Amino acid sequence: MNMVEDYQRHFSHSFNYSLDNGTSGNDTAGSFQSLFSPVMDKTMNCITIIILFITMISLGCTMEIVKIKQHIVRPSGVGIAVLAQFGIMPLTAFCLAKLLQLGPIEAITVLICGCCPGGNLSNIFALALRGDMNLSIVMTTCSTVLALGAMPLLLYLYCQGFSGLEAAVPYTGIIIALVMTLVPCTVGIAINHWAPRYSQIVIKAGFSILLIATVVIGVMCSITLGATVWIVLSPQILAVAFLMPFIGYLLGYTMSIIFKQNGPCRRTIAMETGCQNIQLCSAILKVAFPPEVIGPLFLFPLIYIVFQGAEALFLILLFRIYHRFNPSIEEKTSGQSVKGKWNRGH
Questions:
Q1: Region 266-279: what's the mean pLDDT?
Q2: Of 42, 99, 183, 189, which one has the greatest count of Cβ atoms within 10 A?
Q3: Which of 37-51, 166-180, 235-249, 254-268 has the highest average model confidence (pLDDT)?
């Protein structure tokens, strides 16, 4: 713990230094220090880490080594998806932070969210949109692994666009959090490979615990932060939370059209692009940043996931309504294929 405390003190000093050297914005490091008791802060850190571990184990249980190998042999779809994930979303976060003139800690929060890999919600949304589930799972896997190098690099590059933020990003804490995602994900893959009968149990239990823990954190935050939650509900932050996933879905789909992907792949890439790993983002903001620096802004991922989910559900609703009255060619082809197999078998 002494090493962690020394690191946090170093980060607080670096962040204060960056502010003192002309960084604009309304954030003031140290202004939230009195809101977090040591016991409450440690409790929330533990819950956040537990949520991350459980989520990543559950995600690992959806991955199959055979299917992963198939997409590695034909990496075009995955390559496009990774380009969309680490190209579109970080650039979107950077542009929104600039256009809305976010303060320094707000800008870092948004950039971290934009540079995160794909989340497991994208798999659920891709399934609801009748996407390519193998591609969805492999995309999530690849972006999670590649994030270990891509995320710190992207944060370093984009922080150059904000005066004084070059030394304010806790790269060590972020890398530690990324490693923490790979270990439980590997455990989940191992469970699915050697004991597949337990996979569904782990997945269902994981999402149940995730839901309960999210409610617990929400209650604890409301008690701890009180009126300062308005910072996360400011018009600029709400605008970012609304626009980021929407732009991700739109540009991800557009990119897949440009690269001539089929319908299921287009929908999958759109969901994978717009959906971020919110659990990882929360863990980084809560654990890597001292509470007096991040303040209530570690709640930004919760605001983001509300808009991310609502917009995805709206798109799913539109998709289902459209295909109810206009069955797609791929569905007709699939139906004829099944009918042909039935006739040949009888």
A1: 90
A2: 189
A3: 235-249
Number of domains in the chain: 1
Q: 3-class SS at 164?
A: coil
- Residue 300's nearest CA partner among 322, 276, 319, 336 is 276
Measured CA to CA, the distance from residue 238 to residue 215 in angstroms comes to 20
Q: Does residue 23 lie in a domain region?
A: no
Query: Cα 109 vs. chain centroid, distance in angstroms?
Result: 12
**Tens of pLDDT, residues 168-204:** 788 887 888 788 778 888 888 889 889 888 888 888 8
Task: Please indicate whether residue 34 or residue 134 has the higher confidence score (pLDDT).
Answer: 134
Q: pLDDT tens digit string along 326-340? A: 875 555 444 443 344
Q: Name the nearest CA neighbour of 298 among 280, 312, 311.
A: 280
Range of lowest pLDDT (37-51, 65-79, 203-217):
65-79
Q: Is 117 left (phi over 0), alpha (psi -120 to 50) or beta?
A: beta
Which residue range forms the structural domain that includes residue 254? 36-339
Q: What is the mean pLDDT of the chain?
A: 77
| ∠ CA 148-40-18, rounded to 5° | 55
Q: Is residue 27 part of a domain?
A: no
User: Is 103 within 8 Å of 24 (Cβ atoms)?
Assistant: yes
- Amino acid letter for position 63: M
Tell me the torsion sign for CA atoms 218, 99, 167, 278: positive
Question: What gap in Å lies between CA 18 and CA 25, rounded to an integer?
Answer: 12
**Is 198 in a helix, a strand, or coil?**
helix
For residue 11, being part of any structural domain is answered with no
Length of the chain: 346
Are 109 and 32 spatial neighbours (Cβ–Cβ below 8 Å)? no
